[in-house]
Structure formats: C-alpha cells, structure tokens
Amino acid sequence: MTANTKLVAGNWKMHGRRDMAAALAQAVCAGAPAGVDAALCVPFPYLAQVGDALTNGPVALGAQDLSEQDEGAYTGEVSGGMLAEFGCRYVIVGHSERRARHAESSARVAAKAARAVACGLTPIVCVGETLQEREGGQTLDVISAQLEPVLSLGADLVAQLVIAYEPVWAIGTGRTASVAQAVEVHGAIRHALRGCAPEVADAVRLLYGGSVKPETAPGLFAGEDIDGGLIGGAALDAASFLAICRAAAAAAR
Ligand code: PGA
Questions:
Q1: Whether the Cβ atoms of residue 95 and residue 128 lie closer than 8 Å to each other
Q2: Pairwise CA distance, residues 100 & 210, whole Å
Q3: 172 lines ligand 1 (CB under 6 A)
Q4: Structural element, H or E, at residue 147
Q5: Could you tell me if the CB of 166 is within 6 A of ligand 1?
Q6: Region 6-252: CATH code
Q7: Where are the beta strands (DSSP E) in 34-101?
Q8: pLDDT per residue as tens digits for the range 116-131
Q9: The pLDDT of residue 253
C-alpha cells in the first residue's frame, strides 16, 4: 500500500510577473478539487504574494531551492528558515536544471534535503536520467546513485521526503515518459526505499515529472507507485493545472 492521497506540485520555474502570479495562484486556489494535495512552488520574490493568495485555502506554498547552510555570508542564497517564515510547506531540491546549471552534486542535494527537514519543510527531491544515460541502459544506476546520499540520511529523514522522478529528456520537451517507463523507475525507487527504510517506504510519495499534461495525467496517475506529479509548463495555466489535480483526485479514489 502506498500513500493514497496524491500530491500535485506546480513548478513555476523562472516564469511570471507579479500580476500574473497573483491571478494564477487565486485561480488555482479557487478551483482546487478535494481529494488531492496541491502545491505551488513559485519564484522567491513571489512567495509573500502567492502565500497571501493561498492563505486558508487548500493549496500549499512551496519554493524551488534552498541553501544547505543555516545562515551567514552566502550572497544570493535563501535559507530554509526564511522559506518557513513565509509559510512554505514544500521546497524542490536537486531539480535537474539546478544539477546541470549550478553543478549541484547529489551529496549537496542530500544536504539541502536535510536542511529543509530541519526547517520543518518537506523537500521534493528530484532525480532523473539524461537521454544519453537512458539510451546507454544506465537509467536505474543513475537514479540509484542520485538517491544514495539522501537515502543514507536515515529512516526518520526519509519518512519526511517526497521524491520526484523527472527524466531530463522529458522536461519541457513535450515528450512524456510512457507509463511503463515511469512505473519501472518508480518501482525501483520504492524498492530502494524498502531496503533502507522499510517501515516508512510505502508512505513516501513518489511523483512523476516531465511534460505532464491533462491528457497524460490520468494514465500516469493510475500507474503503480506513481503518487502524484511535479508539473512545469502545465502549471502556468490554471485550467491545465486544475485538470491535472482532478485527474490525481480521481486516481486516488
Ligand atoms: P515540465 O517541467 O512539466 O515543463 O516538463 C517539469 C519540471 O521540470 O519540474
């Protein structure tokens, strides 16, 4: 048995303007269905405004990164304590765009996940292989290596995680992984969780991300061990994001 309420998290990335952020958050909040946990992970400058729009509603606030440091002389970085102060519940860590553009190692991603948990936030830890790695038959090895430092943080910490499988070749490309491809990797992640934290493994939510659209969401969410989605492009349109949330609510029933 896995966690049965699914989680759908929008990742706005570096998109938006102030007026758009408020309107999008309000529309999502107003239309969010029952039976799903929904969250919006927004750019730092919009946290206060989106947080206000979501207050007392069914949609949680999230951010897209945090520092692994507590506080200090780290110009440009944002701490988990600051995110918590703004009402964040979730924070994405180790997105492939950060791993690639900011050379974030899996060890650093694990340190960020630990810092998030210490600040009372739920980290959404992203893993995923490149097209070259998939074509080279290395997918499961890559995922396992990316997960290793985070799984060695111990069962108490692992119990606080959300893990997102996002094949790099599917992100922003319109090329969603097939349900079978996603289920294979999610099954391998669940297996790894059972190995290191058997008592909590089934409760950790495993999200799929990579070009999820309203049309592909129902099939993906029906897949074994797919406990929700991390949604990029489709999260920038309230109607699409809400359709994905409804698919997740329907799949959980
Ligand atoms: P996408 O992005 O849905 O636009 O592919 C997903 C992500 O990068 O989290």
A1: no
A2: 16
A3: yes
A4: helix 139-151
A5: yes
A6: 3.20.20.70
A7: 36-41, 59-63, 88-93
A8: 999 999 999 999 999 9
A9: 72
